[in-house]
Structures are given as C-alpha cells and as structure tokens.
Predict the 3D structure of the following.
Amino acid sequence: MSEARYRRIAADIRRRIAVGEWAVGQALPSRASMARDYQVNPQTMRLAYDLLRRGGVLDGEERKGVYVAHPAAMRTLTDVDASWPYSSETTDTRPRAATEELAERLGVRTGATLQHETVECLDPGGHSAMLVSSWWRGRRQSHASFVAELGTVTLGVEQAHALGLLVDTLAYRVTRTRLDAHGAPVETADLILPMDRWQIRLGG
C-alpha cells in the first residue's frame, strides 16, 4: 500500500464533499464499499477515513458509520503563551540537534543537543486544532516574558498527517520564544495552526 494512495483518496473525498455529493450530516458509504469503488484494500480506506476524521472533515466511528462533519468553529488566537484549555497528546519527545535557526533563537551553538517536545492540541470534539513543537536546553525553566512572530509554512508529511491535511498545505506558523527575567531565551516553540480553523489577532 502506498502512503500517497490513501492521501489521494482522502483528497478526492474532500473534493466530492465540496461539490455536494455528500451533505453535512450525511453518512458516507462503508469502508468496504468505498474500498471496492476505489479498488484498494479496506486498510487503505481506513487510513483515508482516519485522516479525514482527524482533519474534522468526517465524524463518527467506523463501526457505527462516519458522516460529513459540521464545519469546525473558527478560533481566534490572541495569546500565544496561554495554556491549551482542552485535551492534548504528546507525540514526540526525542532530543534534537540545534539547527542554525534554533541555535539563533536560543542563543546556543549550532548542533547543540536540545530537549524537544511536540504536542498535538485537540478541540472539544477530539479533532486536531494545532501542533506545538518546543525546544529548550537542559532543564525546562520558568519564564518572565515572551516574544512572538507570525508567518506561514507549508506542512511536511508528519505535520499534515497529524492535522488531517494534505502535504504542502499552507498554515500559520507562530514562533514563540520565552525569556527569563534578564531577557535571555529559555525555550522556543513553533505553533502550527491550520488556516481553515484559525484567525490570528496579536497585540493590542
């Protein structure tokens, strides 16, 4: 099974929903039926359905049927340092070598070993709302302030899979660096927010 195949199928189902083949709240055919239509293994269809559920396109449970989800509520990000109020899952804690960009953001040498954590923040319906990847040196420290910059990024494979979107989809990227009382960086993070689920309002 090609990983690209289930992503292509998921993209085609998105297209079919967009043109009105299935309406909001309407059940989709069973996984077995769709697998026959697409001439793929049911496991490939399961992955496509899972990807669409994570992205908030489909809802429901496989054994009870899946249906077209109501559009996710648009959220507004105003405080990039606020705690996430809903559930979250830590998906990666492997230490990383500091890239040139991370070294500059943290004031360390390129290649230095950094502690790392990627957290998937889930909305109340259990859909992925954003990804937060953080890096810091040594033990995690408390901070007194932070600085943030807003930009955009195209999603890589892991990010796209977690958010239920296609690779190379454009998303917001907020870079947040936490500072100690002396203004020295103690932690930096990338917040990745899908553009179809967020608007950003920073500052006054």
Observations:
- The chain is about 25% helix and 35% strand.
